[in-house]
Amino acid sequence: MTDTHQSCLPVGKMPELRVMPMPADANVHGDVFGGWIMAQVDIAGSLPAVRRANGRVATIAVNSFLFKQPVFVGDLLSFYAEVVKVGNTSITVNVEVYAERNRLQAETVKVTEATLTYVATDEQRKPRPIPPLSTLTGQPG
Ligand SMILES: CC(C)(COP(=O)(O)OP(=O)(O)OC[C@H]1O[C@@H](n2cnc3c(N)ncnc32)[C@H](O)[C@@H]1OP(=O)(O)O)[C@@H](O)C(=O)NCCC(=O)NCCS
């Protein structure tokens, strides 16, 4: 496991999502609910899955989820997501979440790591084969 504290965000990577939790996303102590973070991770992870599947996907499994550090109201969160496995109908994605705290002091902390599996689905919400990479032409919305 890598150190959770670092001075900057991962170099050379683009986050899928950047978002700042608000007071409604936290308990009375200002700690952000794990369920709120899980929802954002699911959204961030689905984005590369949708691109790779060239269409709709459904989350079938949350394989692992580690809340390594707390998240506070006002943290600027960046969600990095990467496809790590492509099966017949499924796509597994790693998601790493970094928080920029006290942004004027440039403190960056890795707060969450997760792995999720998505299944490519058709119009009837049934599994469909992942298309070969060579057939992908664009990036669906
Ligand atoms: C997604 C869904 C259409 C898949 O249908 P299914 O008949 O269960 O799918 P299958 O058993 O054929 O498995 C499909 C793929 O998922 C994988 N899979 C199944 N269970 C899994 C698990 N526990 N962990 C990881 N992958 C899993 C299978 O290995 C298969 O991958 P592959 O084709 O690449 O080998 C169906 O399960 C569903 O609709 N689930 C609800 C999805 C949803 O609503 N998610 C939002 C949260 S409620």
Automatic annotation (TrEMBL):
Region (Disordered) residue spans: 122-141
Keyword annotations from UniProtKB, A to Z: Hydrolase
Every HotDog ACOT-type domain range: 11-124
A GO BP entry: acyl-CoA metabolic process
Hydrolase in keyword set: yes
One of the record's GO molecular function terms: long-chain fatty acyl-CoA hydrolase activity
Gene Ontology CC: cytosol
Cross-referenced PROSITE patterns: HOTDOG_ACOT (PS51770)
Signal peptide range: none
Domain of life: Bacteria
Family: Belongs to the acyl coenzyme A hydrolase family.
Protein's UniProt name: Acyl-CoA hydrolase
Organism in which the protein naturally occurs: Noviherbaspirillum autotrophicum
